Q: What sequence folds into this?
């Protein structure tokens, strides 16, 4: 994308989605009981405190990318992967009120850094912590994905059924496209509520998996074992469709 006006408008729309999703997240965290922070999240090996600490530090890491786009410098997202992991471990045991305050403060820093970007800066290239380069106007979407996926991972009442439709549809299309040529059995994906379709894998025999777009995304993103989906092979619906679904690579 090379048009600064278009990039800035796209970023503004995405920032509005981030704001709304963050408000829902903060409400969930505000209702957590004190002992909930130390309880397991839906992510193996992580407590809810780990998820909350990661969300706060992710916001700050994206501030680094926003500042890099604004100043034209290559500011790393994190000092190092080791430093990232240590910050999450250090932040995980904090009381829920401290976690909430940290989330609120890091969200403000993210919003303030985004507000400082002139239109042309949204077209600047920034570098993800894993090394790939992407335009700055995608930073708000990356924050949106972190908030929406990890809100579900908190395992505190927010489920894939709560995902905004615009988020679910866009992520369904993105992940399906990424897995289109993956070394997987062929699976045709049919969203029966939005009429979106996709296909992943290339091997056979093929499956047809049908259901709401949010349920499809939950499976594609590793947030579900296929609950709520109908699985067909050769035109016949399988009685235990979830057992037929292939394992998927981790969400990138």
A:
């Amino acid at each position: 994308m090379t048009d600064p006006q278009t990039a800035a408008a796209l970023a503004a729309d995405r920032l509005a989605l981030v704001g709304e999703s963050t408000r829902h997240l903060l409400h969930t965290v505000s209702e957590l009981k004190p002992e909930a922070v130390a309880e397991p999240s839906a992510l193996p090996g992580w407590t809810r405190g780990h998820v909350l600490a990661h969300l706060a530090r992710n916001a700050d890491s994206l501030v680094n990318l926003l500042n890099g786009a604004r100043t034209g410098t290559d500011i790393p997202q994190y000092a190092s992967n080791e430093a990232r992991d240590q910050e999450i471990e250090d932040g995980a045991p904090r009381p829920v009120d401290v976690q909430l305050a940290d989330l609120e403060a890091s969200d403000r820093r993210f919003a303030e850094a985004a507000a400082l970007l002139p239109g042309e800066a949204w077209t600047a290239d920034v570098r993800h912590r894993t090394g790939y380069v992407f335009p700055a106007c995608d930073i708000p979407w990356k924050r949106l994905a972190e908030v929406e996926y990890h809100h579900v991972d908190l395992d505190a009442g927010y489920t894939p059924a709560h995902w905004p439709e615009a988020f679910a549809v866009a992520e369904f299309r993105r992940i399906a496209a990424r897995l289109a040529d993956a070394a997987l059995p062929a699976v045709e994906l049919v969203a029966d509520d939005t009429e979106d379709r996709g296909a992943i894998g290339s091997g056979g025999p093929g499956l047809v998996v049908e259901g709401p777009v949010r349920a499809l995304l939950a499976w594609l993103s590793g947030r579900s074992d296929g609950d709520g989906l109908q699985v067909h092979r050769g035109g016949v619906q399988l009685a235990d469709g979830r057992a037929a679904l292939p394992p998927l690579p981790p969400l990138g």
Notes: Helices lie at 4-30, 48-71, 81-91, 96-115, 139-153, 165-178, 213-220, 241-244. The CA atoms of residues 28 and 157 lie 8 Å apart. The radius of gyration is 19 Å. The mean pLDDT is 96.
